[in-house]
Write a structure and sequence with these properties.
The chain is α/β, with parallel strands linked by helices and 211 residues long. It has six helices and seven strands; from the N terminus they run ααβαβαββββαβα.
Length: 211
């Protein structure tokens, strides 16, 4: 179980990396993603990442928010992160609560019971991202982008993503299965921890090669 008492975003991010355990196959995938981001970035001097899952509710939102933090943490410039789905639902409240527990700040921009929009930020930065559930090709998501799918359904339902520079499948277990159980908080935090640790690994490699 993860203890989030008195823990901030930076500490959670760094501990997620320290505790990260990767199979060789997963490590190779993350290195390939890092190398591709770097290659495209050096060629274009700007890169957009679009994390995609079916509902743009949990895993793709975790990935967008943590990559936003990672870009700032490693002081990378002209790298931008987005998320989307093959369907529109909402930025799930359990995902929001989980990210708030690790210091992310959510400000409501447009309240809707179905799909509220939030400005998401964290202590120490003046930057923010707009968080809400949307389709992967929503105008909010800048083109061209590297597409990274985060759940099996998205990989099956998106055999072709127009304008994607490259596409990777980086699946995570869906914390949805724990909703309305005693394990909800722990399960969402474990998912957030895995996403944070793996994105630390990816952006750390990019930072090292740019230094």
């Amino acid at each position: 179980m993860i203890n989030t008492k008195n823990i901030n975003t930076k500490i959670f991010f760094e501990e997620a990396r320290k505790e990260l355990i990767l199979t060789e196959e997963r490590k190779d995938l993350l290195l390939e993603i890092a190398d591709t981001i770097l290659e495209e970035y050096l060629d274009r001097e700007k890169i957009n990442l679009n994390f995609i899952c079916t509902h743009n509710s949990r895993r793709s939102q975790f990935a967008q928010v943590w990559s936003f933090f990672a870009i700032e943490y490693f002081n990378l410039r002209n790298m931008f992160t987005y998320s989307g789905g093959t369907e529109t639902t909402s930025f799930h409240r359990n995902t929001v609560k989980c990210l708030q527990k690790t210091g992310f700040i959510f400000s409501v921009v447009d309240f809707s019971h179905q799909n509220p929009r939030y400005l998401v930020s964290f202590s120490g930065t003046k930057k923010s991202i707009l968080g809400f559930s949307k389709l992967y090709d929503h105008p909010q998501n800048s083109y061209p982008f590297i597409a990274i799918t985060t759940c099996d359904n998205a990989d099956k339902n998106c055999p072709y993503i127009p304008d994607a520079i490259e596409r990777f499948h980086l699946p995570y277990n869906d914390p949805k299965a724990s909703d309305n159980t005693d394990l909800t908080e722990e399960t969402y935090l474990e998912t957030s921890k895995q996403v944070a640790g793996e994105l630390f690994f990816v952006f750390e490699k990019i930072h090292q090669k740019l230094s």
